């Protein structure tokens, strides 16, 4: 009996030796590889952004403004675009006053134009290219949201939303693209939305514009890979900005309401840092949404009938557009 107990003790001791002798070093080694990989990713990200000429549209407010701050801090040579000259100049002054002894930064340039006026985009692109002679990274961020029922929305509102969210970025991208192809170097990013992947009630014009954006830039990615160009589609969920306040309604007037989901959305600084990582690490398609919107994307793909029932139920509950 004593011998049997002694053997079991040896057996347990051997098992423990096996665990500490083999499993623990394997776990520690794996953690070391992961840490090394993350450090390498951060180094590549810094090297990719530092000194790069980065164009940001819609830079005077919201996510665009936060992107300007994080890309400036990362050492990019910024070209900030928007319609409001005064607000862009305020941002430039703010960034000029930011000092970082560890990171070389540059005073941003500005180009003022209305992205919805596609007639002026070509001349704006020429002005952008004159700033530094080329563009390394183009971030199409400017956009407008929408709230309305399809029955009560004029077709001109659909055209307006599509013009800003789709035709504007397309026009600017195609104006900048030839210079990138010629250099065989460049990166085009677009801030889309989770609504570019799923459509929810009372967002028809917005969701349609973002679905079109997703499709166009997916096609672009495939076509320009042969030239060594990168294309990123970044799709955030709700962000705590004034997007819903400035949204257009079915008759073209402003919505003027900060809806609950928008007010409780992600901090724009946090999203801007995620955009920086996505661009710096050359991600092709990034979904920046919470668990429920992410789940909805998968349900729409794998079980569309269930998704349609859920959206119909949501439409009945809301009755009218009141929350994003």
From TrEMBL:
GO molecular function, one term: oxidoreductase activity, acting on the CH-OH group of donors, NAD or NADP as acceptor
One cellular component term from this protein's GO annotations in UniProt: membrane
Keyword Transmembrane helix in annotation: yes
GO biological process: lipid metabolic process
Ketoreductase domain: residues covered: 52-242
UniProt cross-references to InterPro entries, sorted A to Z: KR_dom, NAD(P)-bd_dom_sf, Sc_DH/Rdtase_CS, SDR_fam
Any Pfam family: adh_short
Transmembrane segments: 20-40
UniProt keywords, alphabetically: Membrane, NAD, NADP, Oxidoreductase, Transmembrane, Transmembrane helix
Protein task: Putative oxidoreductase.
Similarity comment text for this entry: Belongs to the short-chain dehydrogenases/reductases (SDR) family.
Protein name (record): Dehydrogenase/reductase SDR family member 7B
Native source organism of the sequence: Megalops atlanticus (Tarpon)
């Amino acid at each position: 009996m004593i011998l049997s107990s002694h053997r079991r003790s040896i057996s347990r001791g051997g098992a423990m030796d096996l665990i500490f002798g083999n499993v623990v070093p394997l776990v520690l080694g794996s953690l070391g590889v992961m840490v090394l990989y993350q450090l390498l990713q951060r180094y590549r990200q810094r090297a990719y952004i530092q000194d790069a000429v980065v164009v940001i549209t819609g830079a005077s407010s919201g996510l665009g403004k936060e992107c300007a701050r994080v890309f400036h801090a990362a050492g990019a040579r910024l070209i900030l675009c928007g319609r409001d000259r005064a607000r862009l100049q305020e941002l430039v002054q703010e960034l000029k006053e930011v000092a970082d002894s560890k990171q070389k930064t540059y005073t941003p340039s500005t180009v003022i134009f209305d992205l919805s006026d596609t007639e002026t985009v070509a001349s704006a692109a020429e002005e952008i290219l004159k700033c530094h002679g080329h563009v390394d990274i183009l971030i199409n961020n400017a956009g407008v949201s929408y709230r309305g029922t399809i029955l009560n929305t004029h077709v001109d509102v659909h055209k307006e939303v599509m013009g800003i969210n789709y035709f504007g970025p397309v026009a600017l991208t195609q104006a900048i693209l030839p210079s990138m192809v010629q250099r065989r170097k460049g990166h085009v990013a677009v801030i889309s939305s989770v609504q570019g992947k799923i459509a929810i009630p009372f967002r028809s014009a917005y969701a349609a514009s973002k679905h079109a954006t997703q499709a166009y830039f997916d096609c672009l990615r495939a076509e320009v890979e042969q030239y060594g160009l990168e294309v990123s589609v970044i799709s955030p969920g709700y962000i705590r900005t004034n997007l819903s306040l400035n949204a257009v309604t079915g008759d073209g007037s402003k919505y003027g309401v900060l809806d609950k989901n928008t007010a409780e959305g992600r901090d724009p600084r946090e999203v801007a840092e995620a955009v920086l990582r996505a661009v710096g690490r050359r991600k092709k398609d990034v979904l920046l949404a919470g668990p429920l919107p992410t789940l909805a994307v998968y349900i729409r793909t794998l079980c569309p009938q269930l998704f349609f029932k859920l959206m119909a139920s949501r439409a009945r509950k809301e009755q009218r557009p009141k929350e994003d």
